[in-house]
Amino acid sequence: SESLAESAAAYTKATARKCLLEKVEVITGEEAESNVLQIQCKLFVFDKASQSWVERGRGLLRLNDMASTDDGTLQSRLVMRTQGSLRLILNTKLWAQMQIDKASEKSIRITAMDTEDQGVKVFLISASSKDTGQLYAALHHRILALRSRVEQEQEAKMPAPEPGAAPSNEDDSDEDVLAPSGATGGGAGDEGDGQTAGST
């Protein structure tokens, strides 16, 4: 009694109901962090054996800030996942001795922890010139802050100089400076001139 088109429509309607998928909540581990910057880019890693750059993947690179629990200082990290499969190809914290420099207008060279062998490697991030500039400025600012904090901690750990030592050194140096410019040397010379003049 049904036409072919009607039976086909009924069949697709019946099967469509069965194919509904439930929404799955994705947990990335970045929920407690605030995202500062995200850019589309390519990631390369330097291979020491072949002395060349090897492409690790392309995708979304994110710079996240998280407040440290112990003293409230800001800690940042770079996270990058590939497009499509969302495989993690970069996950490194920023630290004070981390090296960053602009290799070109559209690329940044950094030292970072490698997720595969847990060692420090050299990476190259290649993106548009605008994104590269923003990323470099954000990284540079955070690394400078980390370095100044490390310097402050080192100064706090160093013993304070003795209060009597510094003034005595300054007094000695002042005496050394004043001694040659005193009137004794000049006076001797004047007397000598006067004696020669009187003798002639």
UniProtKB/TrEMBL annotation:
- Top-rank taxon, per record: Eukaryota
SUPFAM superfamilies the record matches: PH domain-like
Q: Which GO terms describe its biological process?
A: protein export from nucleus
PROSITE patterns assigned to the protein according to its UniProt record, in alphabetical order: RANBD1 (PS50196)
Chain ranges of the RanBD1 domain: 20-101
**Gene3D superfamilies recorded for this chain?**
Pleckstrin-homology domain (PH domain)/Phosphotyrosine-binding domain (PTB)
**Free-text function comment from the UniProt entry:** Acts as a cofactor for XPO1/CRM1-mediated nuclear export, perhaps as export complex scaffolding protein. Bound to XPO1/CRM1, stabilizes the XPO1/CRM1-cargo interaction. In the absence of Ran-bound GTP prevents binding of XPO1/CRM1 to the nuclear pore complex. Binds to CHC1/RCC1 and increases the guanine nucleotide exchange activity of CHC1/RCC1. Recruits XPO1/CRM1 to CHC1/RCC1 in a Ran-dependent manner. Negative regulator of TGF-beta signaling through interaction with the R-SMAD proteins, SMAD2 and SMAD3, and mediating their nuclear export.
InterPro entries, per database record: PH-like_dom_sf, Ran_bind_dom, RanBP1-like
- Please give the chief subcellular localization of this protein: cytoplasm
What gene name does this entry carry? RANBP3
Q: Looking at the record, which segments are called Disordered? A: 150-200
* Name listed for the protein in its UniProt record: Ran-binding protein 3
Q: How does it assemble?
A: Interacts with CHC1 in a Ran-stimulated manner. Interacts with XPO1. Interacts (via its C-terminal R domain) with SMAD2 (dephosphorylated form via its MH1 and MH2 domains); the interaction results in the nuclear export of SMAD2 and termination of the TGF-beta signaling. Interacts (via its C-terminal R domain) with SMAD3 (dephosphorylated form via its MH1 domain); the interaction results in the nuclear export of SMAD3 and termination of the TGF-beta signaling.
For this record, an example GO cellular component is:
nucleus
Q: Where in the cell is it found?
A: Cytoplasm; Nucleus
Could you list this entry's UniProt keywords, alphabetically sorted: Acetylation, Cytoplasm, Nucleus, Phosphoprotein, Protein transport, Transport
